[in-house]
Structure formats: structure tokens, C-alpha cells
Amino acid sequence: EKVIYISRHGQSEMNVKDIIGGNGYLSPSGVEYGEKLGDFIANHIDQEKTRFVTSSMNRTRQTAKLAGLDPDQINDLDEIDAGDFDGLSYGEVKCRYPSEYEARKADKLNYRYPNGESYVDLLKRTRRAIQNVDFESCDNFLIIHQAVARCLIGILLGLSDEKVPQMEVPLHTVIKIQGSEITYHKLL
Ligand code: G3H
User: Fold this and answer.
1) Which of 16, 18, 80, 97 has most ligand 1 atoms within 8 Å of its beta carbon, as the pocket-test mutant?
2) Hey, which family's this protein in (predicted)?
3) What is d(CA 7, CA 20) in angstroms, rounded to the nearest whole number?
4) 59 catalytic, yes or no?
5) Helices (H), the chain
6) Is the pLDDT of residue 161 over 90?
7) Atom of ligand 1 nearest to the CA of 20
8) Binning pLDDT at 50, 70 and 90, where does residue 22 land?
9) Please, which pLDDT band fits residue 138 given cuts at 50, 70 and 90?
10) Taking a C-beta distance cutoff of 8 angstroms, is the pair 66, 38 a contact?
11) 145 is catalytic
């Protein structure tokens, strides 16, 4: 059975400030992770039989570059679109748009950001990305985003959609999925 490796990008400038969305670059700690990821791949991954994939965003591409990779880019793996809230911090949303904040908390799966996406939308987009990647033809190593990783793991493991938005996907950790088996390699 083919192996699928999933990593979030290294910690980004937005992660540090608790900002939703954006298209920024990595923090110093995120840069360190990119380098560590390169070592992990050199030591554990057969690069001949592995396809490397990122989203089209700066933080995943920077992570791949630091790891010495030249991956394919798939727009359908970009992070959930926070619409009008892109670039705000979670604290700002809570204080300026309390009813939106509460609506999301009450139903994170179905809640759609104003002019943006919901997890239901993102699940659809992630399924489309998977179909285009054809996971059975070789091993795959994806450098993506937290919300997309939640969707992908949920789809691969056959979890219920309700579980997807709540899943914990840690930074600086390579996740390996083979069949129904999932293992975590914390690098930093
Ligand atoms: O910035 C987007 C986050 O990776 C998604 O987190 O859906 O839990 O707000 P959230």
C-alpha cells in the first residue's frame, strides 16, 4: 500500500500573531523546521519513488525550498479561504464580529466565512485535489496547511465530517499514513 506523508508548513509569521489566513512567510522557528524536514527526507524517504506536492502559498513553498525540494504545486491544496476575515486575528474576530465568532464555534463544519469557505467547501476541494494527484501511482509527500491537513486525514481515514474541523494537527511534525495506520514524527 502506498504511503502518504503530510506536513504542515513551518511556523509562519501569521501563526505567531494568531492571524487567520494571509500569504506570509516563515518565522525563524519555521525556517528551522524546513531545514530539519530536509534532513528527515534525506534519511527516511526514497525520493525516487515519491512525489512531492505543496499548495501554491508562500509558506508551503518556502518550507519545501528549505527542505531542498522542487515540488508540484496544487492550488486546490491552499488553506481554507477566510474571506473578509483574512488577515484578522482570532481575537479581533471575536471582539468585532461576536455573532460570527459564536456561529463558527457552534458549527465549525458548516460555518462559511463571509465571502470565503466552510470546512464542507474545503472537504470538497480537498477531494478534488486527491483525485488529481492519484495517490496509488507512487508515494506522496504533501506540505500543506492545518485545515487542509484535517480534511485530507479525515478523508483518508474515513472519519466522519463532524470530526474533521476539531482534529489536532501539530506544527513541525511529519504525519505518515499507510492504509488505516497513522504515525507522527515530531521533528522540532
Ligand atoms: O488559518 C487557518 C487554520 O489553519 C485553520 O484553523 O479552522 O481551526 O480556525 P481553524
Assistant:
1) 80
2) In the C-terminal section; belongs to the phosphoglycerate mutase family.
3) 19
4) yes
5) 13-17, 28-44, 58-66, 90-96, 98-106, 119-133, 146-157
6) yes
7) 1
8) very high
9) very high
10) yes
11) yes
Provide the residue type at 80 as one letter. Answer: I
Catalytic, 127? Answer no
- Letter for the amino acid at 147? A
43: cell is 534519511
**Section 144-148 average pLDDT:** 98
**Cell numbers linked to 147:** 485545515
More confident residue, 135 or 107: 107
- Whether the pLDDT of residue 1 is over 90: the answer is no
Q: What does each C-alpha distance from 148 to 27, 35, 87, 97, 167 come to in angstroms?
A: 21, 22, 18, 25, 11
How far is residue 186's CA from residue 50's CA, in Å, rounded to a whole number?
A: 20
pLDDT at 81: 98
The interface predicted TM-score of the complex, written ipTM, equals: 0.91
C-alpha cell at 139: 508515494
Helix and strand counts by DSSP (H, E) for the chain: 7, 6
CA distance 137 to 87: 38
